[in-house]
């Protein structure tokens, strides 16, 4: 297919290449004939006229072929060039017939009318060929530049020969008007040509060829007019070659434009660019120089030079006015752009709040303004679990949430204060004149309450938690950077204590912040360094029979020692490291259970899955790959969702999970009772079990002890969970069962299975295998 298309393109180009070759050969032959003066005067007239007709005819053939095969933006230009070529061919044919056949003077005649029409068509073609959009003021300036140069050329032409033509009373008026029309139309074409040249910083090759051909035509016309006024012109002189070569160059320009309409460009030399800039002034200088040289001479030619110079001067003045107007407009644009850039440099583009740089500058200014006796409070707020919105709802919903929270923050800002967005989900509030810590803590509490008001996103309500750190100047810092660091440290103190709260800075908090930063830094490469491992905790029926195990992450860092999951798992979830860490845990758990099943230990493993993992588009493929790599059947794996994805349309979560459950993988929901449970998000998921959070079990009261509100709430929640599970055909697992009486109570409330220290503590793989063999009755 590609070869046949290439052959077709070659075939289409062959006639064009042949025509271009004939066109170039005709131009060379014409030039040689005229240069060497072959034949007498009569033969030179015949040859020059007929050969020129041939050149125009070949150019017409080139434009016809290019226009037929072209479909790009230059096609209108090719059509107008073809119109010009046809009219020019008719004009040359008329001239040749009158001069060589009828032997009558071909000037003035119908040929001149056709020539004038050809000028108009060529001008339209030139405008179509130059496709450079410009602003109105720029176009006006370039047009004035062009007219200024053309005006100076007109002044010199008037002094050189046009004045003699215009004032030659011996010639009929019609002859004089027709003669003057040619240089006038040439000047018009020259103005268009200069406009194209001036408006280009770079010239395309085909534009250069076309401009050179047009310039040769203009020079030829001027030489013809000058020689005619002096009686020195006759057909067959070397000047005729200029017209022939104008068509040769334009023909090659048209062919090149058809092949590369987007434009191969060549850089304009620096001197040429400078010449374009100074050409109007050089034109004005030339006109004045001619006027000064003719000082004292009283002839009609001098009057024309005077008026022409005045016109050129007026054009330059108009050009300067346009330039000043354009410069003023550009200055306004630049000023507005600078103001916009300055605003962007100090403001967050998403929320419109000041950014960290603006906050730091405001802190410096406030500290300098208030002096040592002044008081400032800085509140550092970090949203809790905001990453889950981005993971489950998408970034558009996350951006909408950030804008809403920024608006709430701005509403909490008093006069003289400043609200700022520091990074992704971090905000700050600067409060002047706060007298003591209690007032600053209360301000932080009000800010937290405003932020935690439920958000409505895409028809779903979300509650976003927030950790707020509070620091005061000069109590906790001596500079703006220290104050910001202290508030940041206090915020991390809230994160460490369980999130969603307010804390005032204390010096001992710095150690906790450094530890959290170390956890994030070291955890990033912990899977690759082999520092992670899994412990396994048995799961069993309420009758005491173990039936499965849950894989629990453990981390021992050479630098930090044993790090508790309660410490590093929240950091992993907040930073997104849970995706890589959880992926490692999934693969390792499948591998280990496959080893046990090969040793006739028929058990199922439960692996925890965070919303960030579930939201990843490749999650389903990761699970299938882990099963396939371990050679493990799907029914040997259970995935426990640590939280429900909050999304109105759960299709992108549900479909991959349905594929997995169809292959036997079990799906359960953990943490039930630790937070609100939205049934509309629960129903579409292919769940098989609900796992009651350990805090619910811990709130149950021991039989024989006084009942408490916590016990009543936990009991009611357990009963409601069991009722919901029964209606959906799900089982209920109670987690965190550590006492026998707790087992009996959750059993009485309807739970199906349990997990906790009462059954077994989490154990390394080897120890768990021994425990399983000694406690498993069968299978």
TrEMBL record:
**Keyword presence, Chloroplast:** no
Q: Known SMART domains for this protein? A: EAL (SM00052), GGDEF (SM00267)
Organism of origin is Deinococcus hopiensis KR-140
Kindly provide the name given to this protein in its UniProt entry. Diguanylate cyclase/phosphodiesterase
Alphabetically sorted, this entry's keywords are:
Membrane, Transmembrane, Transmembrane helix
Its domain of life?
A: Bacteria
| Residue span, GGDEF domain | 374-507
Q: List the top taxonomic levels of the source.
A: Bacteria, Thermotogati, Deinococcota, Deinococci, Deinococcales
- Which residue ranges does the record assign to the EAL domain? 516-776
* Family matches, as Gene3D superfamilies: 3.30.70.270, EAL domain
**Pfam families named among the record's database cross-references:** EAL, GGDEF
Show the stretches that span the lipid bilayer. Answer: 50-66, 78-98, 110-130, 142-161, 173-197, 209-229
């Amino acid at each position: 297919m590609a070869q046949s298309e290439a052959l077709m393109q070659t075939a289409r180009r062959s006639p064009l290449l042949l025509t271009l070759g004939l066109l170039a050969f005709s131009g060379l032959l014409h030039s040689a004939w005229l240069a060497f003066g072959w034949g007498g005067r009569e033969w030179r007239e015949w040859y020059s006229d007929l050969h020129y007709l041939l050149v125009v005819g070949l150019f017409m053939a080139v434009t016809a072929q290019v226009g037929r095969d072209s479909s790009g933006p230059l096609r209108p230009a090719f059509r107008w060039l073809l119109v010009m070529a046809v009219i020019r061919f008719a004009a040359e044919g008329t001239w040749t017939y009158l001069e060589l056949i009828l032997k009558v003077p071909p000037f003035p005649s119908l040929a001149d009318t056709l020539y004038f029409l050809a000028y108009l068509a060529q001008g339209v073609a030139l405008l179509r060929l130059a496709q450079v959009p410009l602003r109105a003021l720029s176009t006006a300036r370039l047009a004035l530049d062009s007219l200024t140069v053309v005006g100076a050329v007109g002044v010199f032409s008037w002094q050189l020969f046009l004045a003699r033509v215009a004032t030659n009373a011996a010639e009929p008026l019609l002859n004089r008007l027709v003669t003057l029309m040619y240089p006038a139309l040439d000047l018009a074409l020259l103005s268009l040509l200069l406009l194209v040249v001036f408006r280009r910083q770079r010239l395309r090759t085909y534009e250069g060829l076309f401009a050179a051909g047009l310039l040769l035509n203009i020079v030829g016309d001027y030489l013809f007019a000058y020689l005619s006024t002096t009686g020195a012109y006759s057909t067959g002189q070397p000047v005729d070659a200029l017209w022939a070569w104008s068509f040769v160059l334009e023909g090659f320009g048209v062919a090149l434009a058809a092949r590369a309409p987007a434009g191969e460009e060549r850089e304009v030399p620096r001197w040429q660019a400078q010449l374009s800039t100074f050409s109007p002034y050089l034109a004005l200088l030339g006109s004045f120089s001619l006027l000064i040289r003719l000082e004292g001479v009283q002839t009609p030619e001098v009057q024309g030079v005077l008026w022409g110079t005045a016109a050129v001067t007026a054009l330059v003045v108009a050009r300067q006015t346009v330039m000043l107007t354009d410069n003023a407009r550009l200055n306004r644009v630049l000023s507005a752009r600078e103001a916009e850039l300055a605003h962007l440099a100090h403001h967050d583009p998403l929320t419109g709040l000041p950014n960290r740089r603006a906050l730091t500058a405001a802190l410096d200014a406030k500290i300098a303004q208030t002096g040592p006796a002044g008081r400032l409070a800085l509140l550092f707020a970090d949203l809790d679990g905001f990453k889950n919105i981005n993971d489950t709802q998408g970034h558009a919903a996350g951006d909408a949430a950030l804008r809403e929270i920024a608006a709430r923050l701005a509403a909490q800002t008093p006069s003289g204060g400043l609200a700022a967005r520091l990074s992704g989900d971090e905000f700050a509030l600067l409060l002047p004149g706060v007298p003591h810590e209690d007032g600053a803590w209360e301000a932080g509490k009000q800010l937290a309450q405003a932020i935690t008001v439920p958000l409505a996103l895409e028809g779903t309500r979300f509650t976003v938690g927030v950790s707020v750190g509070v620091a005061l100047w000069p109590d906790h810092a001596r500079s703006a950077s220290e104050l910001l660091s202290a508030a940041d440290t206090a915020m991390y103190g809230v994160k460490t204590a369980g999130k969603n709260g307010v804390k005032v800075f204390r010096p001992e908090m710095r150690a906790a912040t450094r530890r959290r930063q170390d956890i994030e830094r070291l955890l990033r490469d912990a899977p690759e360094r082999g520092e992670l491992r899994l412990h396994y905790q048995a799961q069993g029926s309420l009758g005491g029979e173990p039936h499965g195990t849950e894989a629990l992450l453990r981390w021992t860092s050479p630098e930090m020692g044993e790090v508790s999951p309660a410490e590093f798992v929240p950091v992993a979830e907040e930073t997104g490291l849970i995706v890589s860490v959880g992926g490692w845990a999934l693969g390792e758990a499948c591998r280990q259970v496959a080893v046990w099943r090969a040793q006739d230990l028929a058990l199922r493993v439960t692996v925890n899955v965070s919303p960030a993992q579930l939201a990843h588009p490749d999650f389903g493929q990761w699970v299938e790959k882990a099963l396939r790599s371990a050679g493990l059947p799907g029914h040997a794996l259970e995935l426990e969702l640590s939280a429900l994805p909050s999304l109105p349309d759960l299709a992108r979560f549900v479909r991959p999970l349905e594929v997995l459950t169809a292959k036997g993988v079990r799906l359960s929901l953990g943490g039930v009772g630790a937070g609100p449970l939205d049934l509309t998000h629960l129903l579409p998921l292919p769940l098989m079990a609900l796992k009651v959070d350990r805090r619910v079990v811990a709130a149950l009261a021991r039989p024989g002890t006084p009942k408490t509100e916590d016990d009543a709430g936990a009991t009611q929640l357990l009963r409601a969970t069991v009722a919901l599970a029964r209606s959906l055909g799900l089982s209920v697992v109670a987690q965190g069962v550590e006492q026998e009486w707790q087992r009996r109570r959750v059993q009485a409330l309807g739970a199906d299975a349990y997990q906790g220290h009462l059954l077994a503590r989490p154990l390394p793989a080897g120890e768990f295998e021994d425990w399983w063999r000694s406690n498993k009755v069968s299978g």
